[in-house]
UniProtKB/TrEMBL annotation:
One of its GO terms (molecular function) is hydrolase activity, acting on carbon-nitrogen (but not peptide) bonds. The keyword Cell division does not apply. This is Amidohydrolase family protein. Keywords: Hydrolase, Signal. Residues 346-410 form the Amidohydrolase-related domain. Gene3D superfamilies: Metal-dependent hydrolases. Pfam families: Amidohydro_1. Residues 1-20 form the signal peptide. SUPFAM superfamilies: Composite domain of metallo-dependent hydrolases, Metallo-dependent hydrolases. It comes from Chitinophaga agrisoli. The lineage of its organism: Bacteria, Pseudomonadati, Bacteroidota, Chitinophagia, Chitinophagales.
Length: 430
């Protein structure tokens, strides 16, 4: 290779790197008092203030109502009739744990083995993921980062989506353990031949019993005053048995959820079901046992062939009517940016707009155990705020103009917007 060719390649590589350099930085801590005025405020608990303002200082909401001032030195932003919402929360996602699904080197969401309660997902969280910025653009400001696995995959954590590293991002660490219930229903599109149905069910039930036995051993270990050896896996379950953590059980059909209820009863765990496609059928049982539901992927076909084709859209309203604590989630990571539109669909199938908003804000915060600090716009809570020119649940009018995480106004740029501007320039459309 000649010297000139080497120089050209080096120059080209530098130019490409420079062009692709990220210019989206985390925002420093809030310095000035900020007041948002002349807005429609959706509190998140069902209340709406038709024309009011909100003030926040040092990351906390200090005032909310029809007439709000922040002092002589406050930065006042006149929103001219825009809508203010609590920051939306995305639960049960592998956001930041995977970037390109087909590129193995970018995936760090699963550990080897079936029983990994000591694995903590947050240490693998990548704050530099380009997907994160696309969520903030739509008003999603917090997320629960959850590991994936065959049985006990490890603990999830709640993160705020404007950080330099996972330590900065941590909002609530190790909020719960995740159990992926073996499926008692064969896949709709199997790859290759399947064993007989009786064998599949038996294998699944055997795995559930394996997890039960593991919990029993862990309980006995925790009840011992002294140990000859430390078992890290059992130690990781101390908070779960003390009800300081939730057990998130991923399952969808009625039989699987009834097994989840049985596990909650046997061990006294605080349980939430993730998935819950058929939860509407046993809503009364879930209510009686105080089991919450993270309703996953409402924009989908029904689970059973004889269900109403619109059943996934109606499930949220049915859980609401039954008094079950639930929130709405979206499967995967990049799909999370559509979370508010899933709630919008629920509002067209039996829920009010404010109930649907609670299903992606306050209800989510309650399930994740962070409702004392976020999930609604109330004095004393963190200033996690999204501002939209129109209805944030409607993809036609959703246009987020400002977003604040703990009082810091975050950058709403993202890779999609940058590419849009790049090709507008290329084709002379600016």
């Amino acid at each position: 290779m000649t010297k000139h060719i080497r120089s050209y390649i080096t120059c080209l590589a530098f130019t490409t790197t420079a062009f692709a350099q990220e210019t989206i930085y985390p925002t420093p801590a809030q310095q000035k008092n900020i007041v948002l005025t002349n807005a429609i405020i959706h509190v998140g608990n069902g209340q709406v203030i038709e024309k009011g303002g909100i003030a926040f200082s040092n990351g906390k909401i200090t005032a909310l109502g029809a007439s709000v001032t922040g002092g002589a030195d406050a930065q006042v932003i006149d929103l001219q009739g825009q809508h203010i919402y609590p920051g939306i929360i995305a639960p049960a996602t592998d956001l930041g744990l995977t970037e390109v699904e087909s590129v193995r080197a970018t995936n760090d969401y699963e550990e080897v083995g079936d029983l990994n309660p000591s694995v903590s997902a947050i240490v693998a969280y990548n704050t530099d993921s380009k997907v994160i910025n696309t969520l903030r653009t739509n008003g999603i400001l917090l997320a629960q980062i959850a590991p994936v696995g065959d049985l006990l995959s490890g603990s999830s954590s709640v993160v705020q989506l404007d950080a330099w590293n996972w330590e900065d991002a941590a909002y609530k660490t190790d909020d719960g353990e995740h159990f992926y219930m073996p499926k008692l229903l064969p896949p709709a599109n199997p790859r290759g031949p399947l064993p007989p149905a009786t064998d599949r069910v038996k294998d699944a039930l055997d795995k559930v019993e394996q997890v039960r036995a593991f919990f029993r051993e862990a309980k006995a270990y925790i009840q011992e005053e002294k140990h000859t050896e430390t078992n890290l896996k059992f130690e990781a379950l101390r908070k779960l048995f003390a009800k300081e953590q939730k057990l998130y059980i991923h399952c969808n059909i009625v039989k699987e959820m009834l097994l989840a209820v049985d596990i909650a009863r046997e061990f006294g765990f605080n349980v939430a079901i993730v998935g819950g496609a058929d939860s509407w059928q046993i809503a009364d049982i879930l209510k009686q046992n105080n089991i919450a539901v993270i309703l996953e992927q409402p924009h989908s076909l029904p689970l059973m062939q004889d269900d109403d084709v619109a059943q996934p859209y109606k499930t949220a309203a049915q859980l609401q009517k039954a008094g079950v604590l639930f929130c709405i989630s979206n499967e995967g990571f990049w799909q999370q940016r559509n979370l508010m539109f899933e709630a919008g669909t629920a509002s067209a199938y039996g829920m009010t707009k404010e109930e649907a908003l609670s299903a992606i804000t306050l209800n989510t915060a309650k399930i994740l155990g962070i409702d004392k600090t976020t999930g609604s716009l109330e004095v004393g809570k963190d200033a996690n705020i999204a501002v939209s020119t129109g209805d944030i649940l409607d993809m036609k009018t959703n246009h987020v103009t400002h977003a604040f995480i703990q009082g810091r106004e975050v950058n709403l740029d993202n890779k999609h917007k940058q590419l849009y501007e790049r090709y507008k320039y290329k084709y002379g459309l600016k």
